[in-house]
Every structure is written in C-alpha cells, then in structure tokens.
Amino acid sequence: MANTHRLGILLSGRGSNFMAIADNVAAGKIPAEIAVVISNRPNAPGLEEAQRRGFDARLIPSKGLEREQYDRLVVEALKEKQVGLVCLAGFMRLLSPYFVSQFPNRILNIHPALLPAFPGLEAQRQALEHGVKITGCTVHFVDENLDAGPIVLQTAIPVLDYDTPETLSARILNEEHRLYSEAINVILSGAWRIEGRRVIRTEIGG
User: Fold this and answer.
1) What's the CA gap between 21 and 7, in Å, rounded?
2) For the domain 109-206, what is the CATH code?
C-alpha cells in the first residue's frame, strides 16, 4: 500500500530541488521520507548526490524506449518502494497518461514561471523576451499535458531591467527551493481539495 509520506524523486540533471527537499526532510521540516531517487540520465549529478547521501538511487535509462514503455519501468520501481507522492525535480520528460493514471493527484512538478504563462523549456528566456515585469515559479499537479495541471502554490518574482536568463534563473531557483517544500507539506497535510482546476486549501481533516 502506497504511503503519501514516502516520496519518490525523479530527476534528469543537477537535482538542486531534490537537494533542497532532502535537506528539509533531514531537518524535520517535511514529515516524510525519500523512498527512492530515479534518473533517466546516466551522468545526472543529482543521482550521484543521492547516492552520496545514502538514498536508494536508481538509473533507469530512457534512451531508445517509447514513452509509456519507459514510464512502466519507473512506475514499477515507485510501487516497489511504496511511493505515495512523486516529485519531479528537473525531470526532462513528459509523463504518459499511463503514468499519471497510476498516481492521480499524487505527482508534483515545479516550473520556473507563473503558469499558465511560459510553459515548456527556457521559461526565463520566454519571460524576458515578452518583457514581463513579474514572473516567478509554480508548483502544480502533473497531468498528461505539458505544465498544465492544477496549481498548488505560486510565488512572484520581479524581473529587473538588467536581468539575463541566468540571473533571473538564479533568483527564481532560490524561491523554488522554498516553495516546493511548502507545497509538499500542503499535500502531505491532506488539507486540500481540487475543484475544477483549482486546488483549494481546507482545514485539517476538512
């Protein structure tokens, strides 16, 4: 039986959001345990960091596999570890309907923009090119569509006149590390419900 307080982290790269989550779990700020860390890329620094920290860190290579074929392998590993909440931390793959169906409203992702603005890749560059004065980051549930699931939490960040994609990315990333853990705690509390596309906060047990 899956336990919501058992987290499965999926990553493809450096894993800075994974590290922030792991730090908060270790500090007792997130009442959960990281059951498994999975990467689809063999040289992901985040996977090496997970191994260094003593987590069950698994490489499941995606190269050459169809999307659902790959997702079935990942879902099998998550279920083996009784994962109840899946957290995407720079996982550079669009999940299949099969994957989403196995963890309904139990997959979180963080995106470096105020969705629905600037979905997909290079969100910070998109924001600068559009000339917006405010951007930010969004934690949302994952569905079959790109960056389109119900929004759990957002935070706004001003775009400065001298910003480059790199400087803007760095400031957003600082907020991502805080917001993701906050959103995980919201979901773990059970004090929420989904109405249409909206995630509504409720009283504990409400």
Assistant:
1) 10
2) 3.40.50.170
The CATH class of the 1-104 domain is alpha beta
Asked whether the CA dihedral 107, 102, 60, 23 is positive or negative, the reply is: positive
Residues labelled as active-site residues: 111
This prediction's pTM: 0.95
Nearest to 99 by CA among 110, 112, 86, 90: 86
Per-domain residue ranges of the chain: 1-104, 109-206
pLDDT at 113 > cutoff 50: yes
Full DSSP string of 104-132? TT-EEEEESS-TTSS-SS-HHHHHHHHT-
Given this model, what pLDDT does residue 206 score? Answer: 46
Q: Are 181 and 191 in contact (CB under 8 A)?
A: no
